[in-house]
Amino acid sequence: MPDPLKVRSKYEEILANHNRVLRWLQSGEGVLLRDWFQEIQDNCRHKLTREKEPTELFRLQGRMMLAEELVKLHDELQQYGKDVASGKRKAL
Predict the structure, then answer these.
(1) Distance (Å, rounded) from C-alpha 42 to C-alpha 51?
(2) Contact 38, 71 (CB under 8 A)
(3) Which of 19, 7, 33 is nearest to 80 (CA)?
(4) Residue 55 lies in a domain
(5) Burial degree of 70 (CB within 10 A; 0-12, 13-18, 19+)
(6) 77-90 burial, b if ≥16 CB within 10 A, otherwise e?
(7) In total, how many domains does the chain have?
(8) What is the CA radius of gyration of the chain?
(9) For residue 14, what is the enclosing H or E element?
(10) Residue 34 lies inside a defined structural domain of this protein
(11) Model-level pTM?
(12) C-alpha distance from residue 77 to each of 44, 55, 68, 86 (Å)
């Protein structure tokens, strides 16, 4: 039984609701959002090769990192669901 006093992180909440989040990410709106973040990631990668200003490089790296997290969330949630189903991980 989960400890009622333990506070879950936002990521743990997403994992605990992985089926609902996956359904949303696979909906038209979710696909559009993922595609947009993929486009942001691609644009940042292109700009990083040309940018010389350290401050702008730092901003681009941060933007790219955030976009990458959302793009890979779909795959992570699918893997989490498989791991729970196979018994490799305990469900949250």
Answers:
(1) 14
(2) yes
(3) 19
(4) yes
(5) middle
(6) beebbeeeeeeeee
(7) 1
(8) 17
(9) helix 10-16
(10) yes
(11) 0.70
(12) 25, 33, 14, 14
**88: which 2 tokens?**
């490799």
CA angle 60, 74, 11 (to 5 degrees): 80
Q: Which domain holds residue 70?
A: 12-85
37: number of Cβ within 10 Å: 20
Q: What digits encode the pLDDT tens for the residues 11-70?
A: 899 999 999 999 999 999 999 999 999 999 999 889 988 888 889 889 988 988 988 888
* Residue corresponding to tokens 């400890």: 3
Q: What are the backbone angles phi and psi of residue 84, rounded to the nearest 5°?
A: -65, -45
Token pair of 33 as six digits: 């959002």
